[in-house]
């Protein structure tokens, strides 16, 4: 392997990681509060879940394409790529947050209220800790899929390991495809393993 | 002396269905009022009105002379201890943290919470050194129920509410818990409202029994008077005591 390729792998891997990290941070910041909200407002549930569901069903390449003409969040480049990745990551986090909180034993919730906990205390001292594992599982699924989907970001100039893959496909060069695919797969496995470990560690 | 809890024509209605119909009843300091009735008689509904988990749709419930709707809902609940059949201990908290919950919410200082928790666990017959650091899942049903009682007592509430607390444990453990209830009452003199469908439990624990039937108060009497009751619903309950094994 020549040193040019090696340094490009390092550079694009870092780019890839940046894309994923930014997208996941935003997705968590949006989906966890939204998931909590729809446990409080059942009427909003079909709308919020419906939106996230629709985002998930749009083929990823098409979603990147759709965003190009959109003002502010669209265009060519990293920003658009991150927006698309966020939209993709929402559903598993949102759904698991909701399911985790609604899955708290009603007797535990009732006794928390009867002990005189405020709504905030009920959420942060009881519901969130008990739902944490489920929420984390959602984040894990979202992270792994985002690492894969981020490869497509190269199609709209988002950079990342997808650059190798698209270049490899265009020039029928297996080495280039592997240079993108192998690191991406390694990142996905590492992230899955690390988050899985965190999930098991949580509450013994 | 003014009653600790007073129902004034308190009703609870969902749609057109009366769950509880104009209940008038007062509970004096130190007494154990047992709300006895079949499933669906409205007894749990009446109980939940006391700490504001439910609000009457008509009439009033007064705690320490103040209508529950005029109380700050959080203050009212911390002022009243609550024990339910499912117990509802927090699975992610140790036994000590579960018991110290309300004192911690009330921002007691740590040493005071510690000593309070230890004293309460001893009071309900659990060794703090042995049980304090365990989690609820590591305890038997009877032990968990004791923890539930200790938690309800933690902030020294003036009234304790019990919603069929001993319904899910085996009869031997239940008798044990019932005896402990009587011992705690003797030691602490707390006012209690106790919901059950078990007439034997009612006779054993009550200073007065309020028999509820289809959402209305059918009969109110001391256990001794209850044994002599002539009403149909009271007789139906007393019949449960009469059954004997046939001797060939």
Structure report:
The complex is a heterodimer of chains A (204) and B (248). With 204 residues, chain A is mostly helical. Chain A has eight helices and no strands. In chain A, α2 crosses α4 and α7 packs antiparallel against α8. The mean pLDDT of chain A is 92. Helices cover 39% and strands 25% of the residues of chain B. Chain B is built from eleven helices and ten strands. Chain B has a six-stranded mixed sheet, with helices on both faces. In chain B, strands 2-1-4-5 form a four-stranded antiparallel sheet, with helices on one face. The model of chain B has no long low-confidence stretch (mean pLDDT 92). The interface between A and B is medium-sized, with 18 and 21 residues.
**Biggest β-sheet of chain B, characterized?**
6 strands, mixed
Total number of strands of chain B: 10
What structural class is derived from the secondary structure elements of chain A?
mainly alpha
Shape of chain A: elongated
CA gyration radius of chain A, whole angstroms:
20 Å
Oligomeric state: heterodimer
Q: Indicate the low-confidence ranges of chain B by residue numbers.
A: none
Strand segment count of chain A: 0
Largest sheet of chain A: none
Beginning-to-end CA distance, first to last residue of chain B: 55 Å
- The helix tally of chain B amounts to 11
Spell the H/E element sequence of chain A: HHHHHHHH
Q: What is the percentage of strand-forming residues of chain A?
A: under 5%
Average pLDDT of chain A works out at 92
């Amino acid at each position: 392997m020549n040193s040019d390729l090696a340094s490009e792998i390092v550079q694009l891997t870092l780019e890839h990681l940046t894309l994923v990290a930014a997208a996941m941070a935003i997705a968590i910041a949006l989906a966890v509060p939204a998931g909590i909200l729809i446990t409080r407002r059942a009427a909003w549930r079909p709308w919020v879940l419906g939106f996230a569901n629709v985002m998930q069903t749009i083929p990823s390449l098409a979603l990147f394409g759709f965003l190009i003409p959109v003002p502010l969040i669209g265009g060519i480049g990293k920003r658009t790529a991150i927006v698309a990745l966020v939209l993709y990551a929402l559903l598993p986090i949102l759904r698991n947050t909701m399911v985790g909180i609604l899955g708290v034993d009603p007797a535990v919730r009732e006794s928390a209220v009867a002990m005189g906990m405020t709504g905030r205390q009920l959420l942060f001292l009881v519901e969130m800790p008990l739902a944490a594992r489920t929420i984390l599982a959602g984040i894990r699924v979202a992270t792994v899929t985002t690492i894969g989907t981020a490869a497509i970001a190269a199609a709209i100039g988002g950079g990342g390991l997808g650059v190798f893959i698209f270049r490899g496909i265009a020039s029928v060069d297996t080495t280039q495809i592997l240079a993108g695919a192998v690191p991406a797969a390694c990142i996905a496995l590492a992230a899955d393993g690390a988050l899985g470990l965190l999930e098991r560690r949580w509450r013994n | 002396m003014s009653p600790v809890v007073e129902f004034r024509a308190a009703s609870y209605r969902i749609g057109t269905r009366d769950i509880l119909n104009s209940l008038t009843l007062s509970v004096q300091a130190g007494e154990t009022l047992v709300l006895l009735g079949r499933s669906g008689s409205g007894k749990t509904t009446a109980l939940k009105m006391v700490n504001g988990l439910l609000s009457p749709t008509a009439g009033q419930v007064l705690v320490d002379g103040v209508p529950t709707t005029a109380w700050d809902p959080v203050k009212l609940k911390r002022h009243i201890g609550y024990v339910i059949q499912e117990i509802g201990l927090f699975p992610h908290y140790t036994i000590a943290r579960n018991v110290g919950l309300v004192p911690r919410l009330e921002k007691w200082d740590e040493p005071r919470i510690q000593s309070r928790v230890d004293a309460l666990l001893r009071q309900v017959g659990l060794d703090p050194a042995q049980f304090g650091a365990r989690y609820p899942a590591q305890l038997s049903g009877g032990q968990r129920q004791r923890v539930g009682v200790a938690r309800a007592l933690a902030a020294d509430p003036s009234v304790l509410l019990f919603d069929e607390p001993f319904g899910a444990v085996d009869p031997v453990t239940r008798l044990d818990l019932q005896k402990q209830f009587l011992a705690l009452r003797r030691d602490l003199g707390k006012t209690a409202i106790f919901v059950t469908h078990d007439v034997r439990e009612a006779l054993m624990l009550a200073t007065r029994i309020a028999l509820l039937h289809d959402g209305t108060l059918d009969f109110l009497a001391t256990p001794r008077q209850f044994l002599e009751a002539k009403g149909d619903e009271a007789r139906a309950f007393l019949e449960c005591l009469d059954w004997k094994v046939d001797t060939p």
